[in-house]
């Protein structure tokens, strides 16, 4: 509501070299996305800020503080049996976390036969680009696919902007023929996708495919994909500058794969963002898919499953020609 609003916050450094020194940051909030963050030099800090004393944190507090510095992950394991259990296990490598997602089967669905759960391990780099984290949209899309896993068998699925690839890897575990993709100019991201596959006993080039796709560009990688039944994506629309590039790619793929659709989860970040005009431009239409009942059998609310964010499940198809 205010075009210019600013405030100061003290920041305690957690690095060992700075020995917990306090500095002061100034944040200015502006209209739309025009906000700024700057750290002020210690030389201008008032004495009361320099002399702030913080009690030594406990081990539990250190862990909580560390988690606050990470993106909004979905955390916590469930004690009671359910269709999906989420937990995080830290690996011995200090450079990464490995999160375990457990998708459980109900025995009554298989005539009382007890079948093993599907476990997926996702490595997340602690200091890396956004593509190396599992954002809340991915578990939501994965849970939706899991509830419809029988329909995924032998389906040819392409995941756009795969990142840590949780939905695509789950689809492959359910019997789908999956191609995981991310931007062709991000070799480290593609390498991380390969690692995610290998960690889940999926060999790239044999059990699952990994390829680079440059959104908005009609390159050989698009023509070499082969037939596609379903395109999936989680949190691809994170920046308005890539909206049209994504829709150009989706439009091309849908035109060359009659009957296919693009199923994706979207996290609201700004009420000013819209793809309505772009949908019309590229002869696409978008429909909301209900998430009602997606958390059935889970000891967790849908709101908590979304990490406190507003997440939508949407479906894009070609607009029928008159």
From TrEMBL:
Source organism: Lutzomyia longipalpis (Sand fly)
Protein name: Putative n2n2-dimethylguanosine trna methyltransferase
Pfam family, one: Methyltransf_16
PANTHER family tied to this protein: HEPATOCELLULAR CARCINOMA-ASSOCIATED ANTIGEN, HISTONE-ARGININE METHYLTRANSFERASE METTL23
Alphabetical UniProt keywords: Methyltransferase, S-adenosyl-L-methionine, Transferase
Matching Gene3D superfamilies: Vaccinia Virus protein VP39 (3.40.50.150)
GO function terms (MF aspect): methyltransferase activity
Family per similarity comment: Belongs to the methyltransferase superfamily. METTL23 family.
Gene Ontology CC entries for this record: cytoplasm; nucleus
InterPro entries: Methyltransf_16, SAM-dependent_MTases_sf
Signal sequence residues: none
GO biological process: methylation
